[in-house]
Fold this protein.
Amino acid sequence: MFTNIPVSAMIGLFFTALYFIAAIFAPFLAPYGMAEVVGDVWEPSSANHLLGTDNIGRDLLTRMIYGGRTTIFIATAATILSFVTGSVLGFLAAVLGGWADQVLSRLVDLLMSIPSLILALVVLAVLPVTVTTLILVMGLLDSTRVFRLSRAVAVDINVMDYVEAAKLRGEKRGWIIFREILPNALSPLVAEMGLRFIFMVLFISTLSFLGLGVQPPLADWGGIVKENKDGIVYGIGAALYPAIAIATLAISVNLVADWILNRTTSLKGGRG
C-alpha cells in the first residue's frame, strides 16, 4: 500500500497526521489546562514541563497543543470556505460568460488590488474578533485567489468536446459544473488547496502576532510567538517552538500536496 509513496510524501504525511491528531485529541494529550498557571515565568525544560513554561508560567507544551488545535481548525475552516466560494463562483463565471463573468471578475480584481492583510486588519478593527469572524474574513478574502484559478481552468475545460456534448444533451449548468468541469479541474485545485491552507496558517498566525487574531485565553501559534517574543532577548527560546511548528506544518502539507498533484495529474483525463 505504501510502497508507491515517495519518501518526501511519507514524511509530509507523518508530520501532517501528527499535527492533526494532536489537534483533535488536544484535551487528552495536554498535561495541564490551557490557561492554567503551573510554574514560574519562563522555566527551562524539565520532567514536569517538557518545553518549559511561558511568559506567565503556563505549561508551554500544553499551550502548543491547544494552539495547534486552534490554528489548524481556523485554517482548515477558512480554506474550505475559500474553496467552496471561490471555485463555485469561478466555475459559474466561466459557464455563464458575458456580463455575469465580467461583473464577478471585476469585483474580484477590485478586492485583489488591496493587500489581504491590510484589508483583514481594517475589517477586524471594526468587527468583534471571534473565531467565526476570523474564518469568514480569511475565507472570503482568500476566495478571490481561488476564483481566479478555478475560472481560468474552467474556461479552458468549458470549450472541450465532452462539455459541448453535455450542453447539446440539454444538461443543466449544475451538471456541467459538478460532473463535467469539476472532475477535470481537480488536479490544479488540489495543489492550490494545499498552498492556500499553508497561507491560512501563516495568515492567522500573522493576525494573532499583530493582536487582531485569536484572543486570550485561547491560544494559537502566532499568539504564543507574540506572548514570548521578549524572552528571545534573554536567550529564552519559548517563542521559537511555535515558529518551528508553523514551518514544519507548512512544509509537510506542501509535500503532501505535491504528491497528490502528481497522482491526480496522472489519473486526470477528459470524459468522452
Q: What stands out?
A: The chain has a mean pLDDT of 87. Residues 73 and 88 are 23 Å apart (CA to CA). The chain has one domain: 7-267. The radius of gyration is 22 Å.
